Fold:
Amino acid sequence: MRRFVNAWAGLVRPRRRDLVQFFLADPGFRRAWAKYSNELSIEQWLAEPQRMQPVAAAAGWAVPAIESAAALADWLELTPGELEWFGDLKGLEYRRKNRPKLRHYYYRVSTKRVCGLRLIESPKVRLKELQRQILALILEKIPPHSAAHGFVKGRSIRTFTAPHVGQRVVLRMDLRDFFPSISGARVQALFRTMGYPEPVADLLGGICTNATPRDVWNGLPFHIDPLQLREARMLYARPHLPQGASTSPALANLCAWRIDCRLAGLAKSAGARYTRYADDLAFSGGEEFERCVERFSAHAGAILLEEGFAANYRKTRVMRQGVRQHLAGLVLNQRANIIRSDFDQLKATLTNCVRRGPESQNRDAHTAFKAHLDGRVGFVESINPARGARLRAIFERIEWPS
Structure:
């Protein structure tokens, strides 16, 4: 037992099967079993109730104490059968072929701008309510890493890009398939880190993850390379964070904690700064960083692989002062500003809305086109108030149908 405690000191609470495997592989236990197996018997079963056991770093997190599956069902206002249904630990969602009414998610497949496929998995109403409760009462109680700026209250694209303005060199990297690369097992381990017993952690992880049925990929309305389609099917077939669930961004940030720690340390050793906005990674620095930036990107890619992720090297860019340095749609050479072509395109769209009516410009069939344009103008206002005021004046002249 002392060897077991030492082996798991400071780690996530082990599963029951981890304990069994440890003792079966322990040389001391095996010797004792071989010598005394005929004399050993079970004297008494100790059935101690499950209780919260957070790791040391999680001891101060104000998450609710839920110590059994029955308590979790009460907390979510579900029956035990409904909890099992939504947790889906048996993978029934994956097996429900051509039965969309019995599924917990709506699915929509599209192509990415550069390459590959994107799958939007939108939870249905009841599951969405459960995920929102988990987000508000558990996940938002846990502080994210200081380098994470996406989907974090009080942080934004401005805070993500601010450390990299006016730097001698900027390195931009992108994580490939960020959400689906985070497995259900990793999410369940995160909940055990918070202190939840194994049955509770597994059910919470099951509610927040999904395994995509194979027939979702059938009959796509566009051509896709067969190899890419095969890779997508394999990636999404295992339990993963669904892009479309309200809990996925917060869980992704928390599951990327080790990445942020390691990349922040690597950047500091190279005299650089590091921030992350969802799957966009940014590093910047002066002459010291410029001399080693290519080698640095290789080290960063190796860290990502060790942590179960992969860099999309087609999107990796090294941007020195002589070229346009841009991150998340902002130019950073002198100060954070809107990319000129994006500004001109939005201005043309607003002008055409004034001249020809907003219906003529809604080419992507937005259901709330006015709110969509209002949000884009507001974004420009937050980055460059002068340019934003010019766009706002045009926006106010648009005649919207009643």
About this structure: The radius of gyration is 25 Å. Strands lie at 105-111, 117-123, 169-174, 272-277, 280-285, 317-320, 326-327, 330-331, 337-338. The longest strand covers residues 105-111. The chain has a mean pLDDT of 92.
